[in-house]
## 1
Amino acid sequence: MPLHYRKAKAATAEELMRSRYSAYFFRLSDYIVETTHPDTREPGLKKQLEKKIHNISWQFLTILKTSKGGPSDKTGKVEFLAECYVEGEPHEQHEHSRFKRYKGDWKYLDDKG
């Protein structure tokens, strides 16, 4: 929660990934928007999130692999599996996320890792 309330900053890409998962869990759309890299942040992202965010019940996050993304790195990758229910149906999201620093802070870039 310190990251969500801007009391701390993510030291690693994995830490940002975990905080973003928690933000989805707690439906903190502003945090998700703020931690998305400006180069890939779609206009209207907040509106898109707010349409869908209440239909998904996140259950569990498993970090499968990380590459770079440490305190002194500029880029990083995190492979994860997130389990959820979408309108009552079980789903899994398997993603290879890329992260990149922006003005010194870790930001989610995309899922093309």
## 2
Amino acid sequence: MAVVGIDHVQLAMPAGGEVAACGFYAGLLGIPEVPKPSHLQARGGCWFEAPPLRVHLGVDADFRPARKAHPGLLVDNFDALCAALAATGHAVTIDAEDPGHVYVDDPFGNRLELIAATV
């Protein structure tokens, strides 16, 4: 047996953050929101998926943002996305050693690494 891939990444968020999550993940990052399975909906949170990319946000009653641990997301139109994030007040930090990598926080303070997709 061997692990062969990642099905999804789950990040935590505080209760009631679904609207902010949708604005950021679907609105800015362009990952469509998909309905959670009915048996999980009562837990809150939301899912964003454009297979094979799947980012799930789950409510954590003792929420603390992930400041170091982070997903690395491949991005088309990297410069345009970085500009859109900055224009909406999201601090975009360029990796000094690799300008094709930037860091940005989601609305809850979770760190994301955005990586320019190469052709």
